[in-house]
Amino acid sequence: VQLVESGGGLGEAGGSLRLSCTYSPRDFAINIMGWYYQVPGKQREWVAEIGDGGMTNYADSVKGRFAIPGKNAQETVYLEMNTLKPADTGVYYCRAYSNFWQAAFWGQGTQVTVAS
User: Fold this and answer.
1) 42-75: buried (b, 16+ CB within 10 Å) or exposed (e) per residue?
2) How many C-beta neighbours within 10 Å does residue 103 have?
3) How far, in whole angstroms, is CA 45 from its chain's centroid?
4) What pLDDT shows up at residue 17?
């Protein structure tokens, strides 16, 4: 399974960015798509996820600011990042989990930098 992320870059505090993650092959059995972020010297942290039925969950730190609007037909998942804070700065990784294979797959990461 290959995951390709895009959409990172430089944002301003209070502004917005949108990340995208596309997985292939399209017919691979993926049940949960999630986003994590990592800063140097710290462990990767869970940010948000969307499950098969479209149910979403968010870390308290991003609840009300970030949203996953759902997968489109091309098996792309977005992370809409609003009301950005400098603390959101980090490398964001997309993760796909398959219940059938009991395996997780990661993207290469995309850098998000929020200027104050």
Assistant:
1) eebeebbbbeeeeeeebeeebeeebbbeebeeeb
2) 10
3) 11
4) 97
Give residue 78's pLDDT: 94
pLDDT of residue 36: 98
**Other beta carbons within 10 Å of 1:** 15
State residue 54's pLDDT score.
87
| pLDDT of res. 53 | 83
Rounded to whole angstroms, the Cα distance separating 82 from 101 reads 34
Nearest residue to 42 (alpha-carbon basis) of 84, 91, 79, 107: 91
Distance (Å) of CA 72 to CA 26, 39, 57: 11, 29, 18
Cα dihedral 87/23/74/58 (nearest 10): -30
The ranges of the chain with pLDDT < 70 are 71-74
* CA atoms of 43 and 2, how far apart (whole Å): 23
Cα angle for residues 13, 22, 104 (degrees, 5° grid) = 95
Return the pLDDT at 41: 95
